[in-house]
Structures are given as C-alpha cells and as structure tokens.
Design goal:
With 640 residues, the protein is mostly beta strands. A hairpin with a 5-residue loop joins strand 48 and strand 49.
Length: 640
C-alpha cells in the first residue's frame, strides 16, 4: 500500500467564520488519555484541497517515555482502506507533516494508532473532506430584513461554490437543529418561525461539501460555518414594513404563498390563489409562474392607509415577465365593490405606469419612463409615493437605480375599510412573481419612502464588496451622511445649495482596489425645476488625522493638494464621476488611479503611512452660485 510522504510543517485551516470560531482549533485531541500520549491533527469536518499541507503531533506528557510506533490508515466513506503507513520512533511534541495520496473529491477518515511495547497507547479518528474547489458561506440574508416576533421569516445562505456542487447544509438556532438537507433540495434557505419573545438569537448554518452517507446526519461540526446574531424586535419591524408577501414554497398554506403583514390592521390575513399559479423554484427566491389569468388575492390593502387616507410608501416588486405584457396589470388595490383604487400596470405601449383613483372618481396616471422590461429576466421594480398637502413626490426605480421623479398634484380618493390586493389575475401579466414588499416608516417612526432602495439592491449584487451606497431615496438623510448649509432632499436625489456640503461617515478601506462613483447633474430631476446645476469640489480626508488627501472638481479635474493646480482628469461618463483608490500596506500606502479623457493612466500617491488599511471621509462642497445635484454615491471593492 502507498506510504504517506513527509511534506511540510504547516497546516492551513479552511475555516469560514463571522462572529465566532466555535470550539474548533487547529489541533484537537480525541480524548484526555491517561497514558500521557495524545494525537492532535486536523479537526473533524475540515476541508482539505490539493494545496493544503496536513500535519499532526504526538503529544507526550508522560514521565517515562516509551519507544513508540505509529500506524496511519486512510479510508474512504465506505470504510475501504485507501492507504496505510507506519512510522517507527516518531518524534513527539512537534509537527510531523504528511502528504495525502491523490484523491477524488469526497469524505475520508484518518485513523491514528500509537503503540508502545506491543500495546495500544492512544488512538484518534478524524473525518475530513477532500475538495478541489472553493466552498464559502458569504452571509445570511433574511426576508424581511427587519424581523418581528412570532412570525415566519425566510433565511437564505449566500454561498460561493464550485460549478455543479450540491453541498449539504445544516441550520441551527442556539445549538438546536432547525433544518438540513442538500442545496438541490432547497436547504439553501429555510422558513424560520421566530420566537415569541424579543431578543437576540444565534442562527448558525454549516456547509458540508457532500451529503452524509445513508441519509444520516453528521456527528461532527463543519469547519465551514457562519454564525449570525439575529435581532427579533417588535417595534422596529412594525415601523419599517407595512406589508410583505414572499412567494416561496410552503406546505402550511394552500397556494404555497408566504405572507408577512406587518401593518397595524387587525384580523386574519388570507392570501388565495386565482387560477393555478405554479411554483417554479427556479430561483433562490422561489417564485410562482402566472399564466392564463393566474394570480393571487389578499384580503387586505398592501398599501398603508390611515382613516382612508394614503400614507407615504415604497412598493417593491421582484418579478420577471414574458414577451407579451401589453395592457396587463401587475398589482392592483380594489375597494369593497371590486373597483380599482390603485394599479401598477403595462399600458397599451407596454410601458409601466401607476394609476390612482381621484376623489372625483377619475384617475391620475404616473408614467415611469420605463419602456419595457427585459423578458424572462428577474427584475426589481420600485415605486415611491410621498403625499403632501399640496403635491405628491413620485419616483420610479429599476433594479435600485432611479429612472424618473416628479412632483404632481393627486387628489386621492378615500379608501373604505373593505379592500383587497390583487397580484396578476384577470387581465394580469404573464411571468413570475417572487415578492412584493411595502416600506412606509423609517426606524425613527418617520413616515417616509424607502431610503435603502439603492443600497439593498447593490448589496444583493456585490454583497461584502459593497462598502458604501446612498441614493438619497427617502425624505430624511441617512445615518451614513451629514449635511451642512442649505439643501433639499427629494426621493432619489440631493440638491446642495451654494456653499453647502455633504460628508460621509468614515469609510474603512482594507487592502485592495476600490471603485468610487458619484452621479452628478443627472437628467432625473423635478420636472418643475429649471435651475442650472453648478460644479463642486470633492475632497478626500484621512479619517484618522483629518488631513486632506486630495481634491477633485466635479468636472473630473484632479487638483494636487500641494500645488493647488490641475494635474489630470478622471473618468467622467454620463455625468458620473468615477475614480479608483488603491489601498495597500505600509509599503504601498493609498493612491489614486486616474485616467484622463485620452486614456492615459496616472497614479497619484495620497498617503504612504498606513498600517491596517485606510479610513477616509468623502466630502463634496458646492463651490458655485448655482445648485448642485447629486443622484447617488457608491464605493465598491473590486474583485481580485
């Protein structure tokens, strides 16, 4: 049989953690052996790849050391011996490296047996996984993102896997298993019934590259896991989302629709299928396919009302559509007589629009500017409406980015208590519906449209690589910025008056490349405003020292802090200022990669002294006599 080969003195442990490493260690004894001889090596459930060196130690604490021998056996998941080796007089209390033979991906067992004077002194058995790809748990997401007690929430693991991988996942709450299975069987997400009491609950998801044999569960923990502290709070949930419907498969409800109505309306909430909507399961979000008039009806208003008067809201719909959507309705709100009060629909030109009923029983149509949606492609559509005494601010968003905004007079009709929400249905669109969420209050209890539209969507796309994003989508400034001077905040853009400024919170830049985008002077403006837009100065500040690192003008010109003169120009396209900062260690510091309009690249060193990354503050000042409009700010870490 093949012998193990001595190779290296180090073991790379592939452990994925967020908040805690648990009890796993680099070396772990099987038991406290009274002989004073113990074997320490990799932990149960560890992942080994072809480039991972494996080692072990024979720990000898006995006063009278014996002449030792070591037997090492490698077995596959069927207990078939793959390799066997012996080692006479192995060294003690030191790393002994070994090389595994060439293996196929799968689960294996190592057995160590220490003998001395013809008798067994110590034994250790450890199971591990041999893999040739990268397995990672990037995060745990919840729908809804704000969780209330005694309700059902979807928890979904964000995974990075090799192609065609079908790992086994195990979910637990405070140590108790609440779900398990393979990814192909839907275990990448679970429906979690939250506790009745408010508090912080620990949710853990473990990833095993392969399912356990004989449909059993693993007796050990995985080295790839993620702990997440989930906050269950009644007040926050009720002040954020008015209502939510998640179209996920669930055997508890006919129609398999998951609903979470977080409004103050009392009574039972019932969602009933129209026709035969079919669960697809083609997306991690689930989704029901609607054809031939299929859809759903809910016995409550999806939109927030107080005494018959509509409140500020943002409705977000995740869907995909078929080729033919002309003159079709996505969602509507009807009164007690079944007459529509509100609709989001495709008009006769297949353009998306919203329709409100007025007090005179007429209608007001709000076009989105979205000509059509790409067929068979998952899309996120959002509409924000903020009614006020004299006018309403209305904004449309596509995949997190605003596409239109206007202020208009809407004399809303009063809505009576008996009302219903219809998704699809008669004359409804054909396609797939994934979710429908309505936001209406921020965490401070302010009635507002959703301030997190851009951030949430970019977070879905970039996950941990999203460092900062603000689209100014609510009625109140977000916690991540401060404003000074005179300014106006409209849903989707911020207007800085002359001499006013915006400043971000300190943003930590670890080692790597970071892409900055500052959208200025967009065509998305209040249609009633004809003000000219001004230019401004963008300043980068060292958050630790307060030192000004760099100035740029909003026309793309980079100004040297020392010479106070233009040096080069950064990329400017469609009124979006883009530049790249590269953050390194103490050798490379922090520098700006600037590309002028001729394509010439230059590196401008901003700081040479850094230790654990760089923390910067981004400040923009309107230095002219006219208004300066900002549509969004984003900082995204580039993939390696």
């Amino acid at each position: 049989m093949n012998k193990f080969l001595i190779k290296t003195l180090f073991l790379i442990s592939l452990i994925v953690i967020v908040s805690s490493c648990g009890d796993n260690a680099l070396f772990a004894p099987l038991q406290d052996n009274s002989s004073g001889i113990q074997v320490k090596t990799i932990t149960d459930g560890e992942l080994i790849n072809p480039d991972t060196p494996v080692s072990f130690q024979i720990i000898d604490t006995a006063a009278d050391s014996k002449d030792l021998s070591l037997e090492i056996t490698l077995e596959d998941s069927d207990s078939k011996v793959i390799s066997y080796s012996t080692l006479d007089s192995p060294g003690t209390n030191q790393d002994i490296p070994l090389e595994l033979p060439q293996l196929a991906d799968g689960q294996y067992t190592l057995r160590f047996k220490v003998t001395g004077d013809g008798e067994t002194i110590s034994e250790k058995t450890v199971s591990f996984f041999y893999v040739t790809g990268s397995y990672k748990i990037l995060g745990i997401q919840s729908d809804p993102p704000v969780i209330g007690p005694d309700t059902e929430v979807k928890l979904q693991a964000d995974l990075n896997l090799p192609d065609n991988a079908d790992p086994y996942l195990r979910w637990s709450q405070n140590g108790k298993v609440i779900g398990s299975g393979t990814l192909s069987k839907g275990a990448g997400s679970i429906e979690w019934k939250t506790p009745e009491e408010e508090g912080v609950y620990s949710i853990k998801v473990e990833l095993f590259p392969f399912p356990p044999p004989a449909a059993d569960d693993y007796s050990f923990s995985s080295s790839i896991y993620l702990n997440s502290e989930v906050y269950v709070t009644r007040g926050t949930a009720q002040t954020s989302f008015y209502s939510s419907i998640y179209f996920n498969e669930s055997p508890e409800e006919y129609g398999m629709v998951k609903k979470l109505a977080l409004s103050s309306v009392s009574g039972d909430f019932i969602i009933t299928p129209i026709g035969t909507p079919a669960f697809t399961g083609s997306s991690p979000k689930g989704g029901f396919k609607l054809t031939n008039g299929a859809g759903f009806t809910a016995n409550y208003s999806i939109l927030p009302f107080e005494n018959g008067t509509i409140q500020p809201f943002t409705i977000t719909i995740d869907l995909s559509v078929s080729d033919s959507v002309k003159d079709r309705t996505i969602v509507s709100l009807t009164d007690e007589g079944g007459f529509p009060y509100f609709k989001i629909r495709f008009n006769t030109d297949s353009e998306i629009e919203a329709v409100f009923r007025t007090s005179g029983k007429g209608t007001v149509t709000i076009p989105s500017g979205i000509k059509t949606l790409p067929p068979e492609q998952e899309t996120r559509l959002s509409l924000s409406v903020f009614p006020s005494e004299n006018s309403s601010s209305v904004s449309w968003f596509l995949n997190g980015f605003q596409v239109s905004a206007e202020k208009t007079q809407i004399d809303y009709d009063t809505l009576q208590p008996e009302r219903a929400t219809v998704i699809g249905g008669n004359n409804g669109f054909t396609g797939i519906i994934y979710s429908l969420n309505v936001f209406f209050k921020d965490k401070n209890g302010n009635l507002t449209t959703n301030p997190g539209i851009l951030h949430d969507e970019l977070n879905n796309v970039y996950d941990r690589n999203l460092i900062f994003a603000d689209g100014f989508d609510g009625q109140y400034p977000a916690d991540d910025i401060t404003l000074k001077g005179r300014w106006e905040l409209n849903p989707g853009f911020l207007i800085l008056k002359p001499s006013s400024e915006i400043k971000t919170i300190p943003v930590q830049l670890s080692s790597g490349k970071f892409l900055f985008s500052i959208a200025l002077n967009s065509s998305v403006k209040d249609k009633n405003s004809d003000k000219d837009t001004g230019t401004g100065t963008i300043i980068l500040i060292d958050a630790g020292t307060g030192t000004e690192l760099l100035k740029l003008l909003t026309d793309g010109t980079v100004v040297s802090p020392e010479a106070e003169q233009a040096e080069t120009a950064i990329t400017e396209k469609n009124n979006i200022i883009r530049f790249t900062l590269v953050s390194g260690n103490s050798d490379s510091g922090l520098f700006l990669t600037a590309v002028d309009k001729n394509g010439k690249t230059s590196n401008i060193v901003l700081s040479k002294q850094t230790k654990d990354g760089n923390s910067i503050i981004l400040k923009i000042i309107n230095t002219k006599e006219t208004d300066l409009s900002l549509d969004y700010l984003t900082i995204i870490k580039a993939e390696k």
